[in-house]
């Protein structure tokens, strides 16, 4: 197994870069939206404001989740990253999607609005697209490097990643690029047809896009907060490694839970050889734990429970859990 990737520093860089970019973009979009009267550009301004709040929440997540374990939280504060990332998803929907829906419905069903200074809108949207590309490229590079380090495909890693910060930045930056294209199309069609309907439809499309991103991120963080198991590939590798231990006759059960980014809690129920003395059993448990940590750096806490595999109550609980 490769060493654990050191992604905390790169995640911070990715989030800080996204925050600075989105703050600058939010200001320019707001000015352009007022000058042009475009609902789509105003929706994109709200989008960037939401992204700025999101990055601030993600920075809080990174800082607070790295605190060491203490008496009140013996397994550390790793899950705080999931909590603040969940709030970031709510922020995207509450301040981004809802405003875009409001602007869209107001423009589509309200009175026709005259378009003013569309050139300003085109310039601002183009500059915003170039700036967003900088942030998106950093997020893309991090996802690609971490997926390679974990031996997974790009999208497979993005789906299974236990680091919601980089996933949030990548998805919101991708949504930002798509949203800019939608705003550009709405502005252009408004100018060509003279109807503000297209501008309103673009705003509604941006709202739907943000709502979708917020849903995906909220669903991801909900699973992590509840207590998702570790990467199935890792779980199977741990099971095989324990099966090869000379003192172990059978691996009865392997339970894992993510307790933070790159931090896994492991509880393994093992049927040890009956001829072991108490001292030999204790020594074997210490050695097995050390070997597992050396092979799987993500393992943070390891609990090995000696059990008889023939116990009917234990067998029933294990079989019920896996639906056999």
From TrEMBL:
<dbReference type="Pfam" id="PF01545">
    <property type="entry name" value="Cation_efflux"/>
</dbReference>
<dbReference type="InterPro" id="IPR058533">
    <property type="entry name" value="Cation_efflux_TM"/>
</dbReference>
<feature type="transmembrane region" description="Helical">
    <location>
        <begin position="12"/>
        <end position="35"/>
    </location>
</feature>
<protein>
    <submittedName>
        <fullName>Cation diffusion facilitator transporter</fullName>
    </submittedName>
</protein>
<keyword id="KW-1133">Transmembrane helix</keyword>
<dbReference type="InterPro" id="IPR040177">
    <property type="entry name" value="SLC30A9"/>
</dbReference>
<keyword id="KW-0813">Transport</keyword>
<dbReference type="InterPro" id="IPR036837">
    <property type="entry name" value="Cation_efflux_CTD_sf"/>
</dbReference>
<dbReference type="InterPro" id="IPR002524">
    <property type="entry name" value="Cation_efflux"/>
</dbReference>
<dbReference type="InterPro" id="IPR027469">
    <property type="entry name" value="Cation_efflux_TMD_sf"/>
</dbReference>
<keyword id="KW-0472">Membrane</keyword>
<feature type="transmembrane region" description="Helical">
    <location>
        <begin position="122"/>
        <end position="140"/>
    </location>
</feature>
<keyword id="KW-0812">Transmembrane</keyword>
<feature type="transmembrane region" description="Helical">
    <location>
        <begin position="82"/>
        <end position="102"/>
    </location>
</feature>
<feature type="transmembrane region" description="Helical">
    <location>
        <begin position="201"/>
        <end position="218"/>
    </location>
</feature>
<feature type="domain" description="Cation efflux protein transmembrane">
    <location>
        <begin position="15"/>
        <end position="224"/>
    </location>
</feature>
């Amino acid at each position: 197994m490769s060493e654990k990737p050191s992604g905390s520093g790169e995640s911070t860089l990715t989030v800080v870069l996204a925050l600075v970019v989105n703050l600058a973009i939010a200001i320019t979009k707001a000015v352009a939206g007022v000058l042009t009267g475009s609902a789509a550009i105003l929706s994109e301004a709200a989008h960037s404001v939401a992204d700025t709040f999101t990055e601030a929440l993600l920075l809080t997540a990174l800082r607070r989740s790295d605190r060491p374990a203490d008496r009140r939280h013996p397994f550390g504060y790793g899950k705080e990253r999931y909590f603040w990332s969940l709030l970031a998803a709510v922020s995207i929907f509450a301040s981004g999607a809802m405003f875009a829906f409001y602007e869209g419905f107001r423009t589509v069903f309200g009175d026709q609005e005259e378009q003013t200074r569309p050139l300003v809108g085109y310039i601002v949207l183009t500059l915003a697209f170039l700036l967003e590309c900088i942030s998106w490229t950093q997020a893309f590079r991090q996802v690609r490097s971490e997926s390679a380090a974990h031996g997974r495909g790009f999208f497979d890693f993005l789906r299974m990643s236990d680091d919601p910060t980089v996933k949030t930045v990548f998805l919101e930056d991708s949504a930002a690029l798509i949203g800019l294209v939608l705003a550009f199309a709405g502005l252009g069609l408004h100018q060509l047809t003279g109807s503000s309907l297209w501008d309103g439809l673009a705003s509604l499309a941006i709202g739907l896009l943000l709502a979708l991103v917020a849903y995906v991120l909220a669903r991801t963080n909900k699973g992590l907060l509840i207590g998702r198991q570790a990467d199935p590939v890792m779980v199977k590798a741990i099971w095989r490694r324990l099966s090869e231990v000379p003192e172990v006759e059978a691996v009865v059960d392997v339970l894992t839970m993510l307790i933070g980014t790159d931090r896994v809690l492991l509880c393994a129920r093992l049927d040890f050889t009956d001829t072991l003395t108490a001292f030999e059993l204790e020594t074997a448990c210490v050695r097995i734990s050390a070997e597992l940590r050396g092979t799987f750096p993500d393992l943070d806490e390891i609990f090995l429970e000696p059990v008889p595999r023939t116990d009917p109550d234990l067998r029933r609980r294990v079989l019920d859990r896996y639906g056999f």
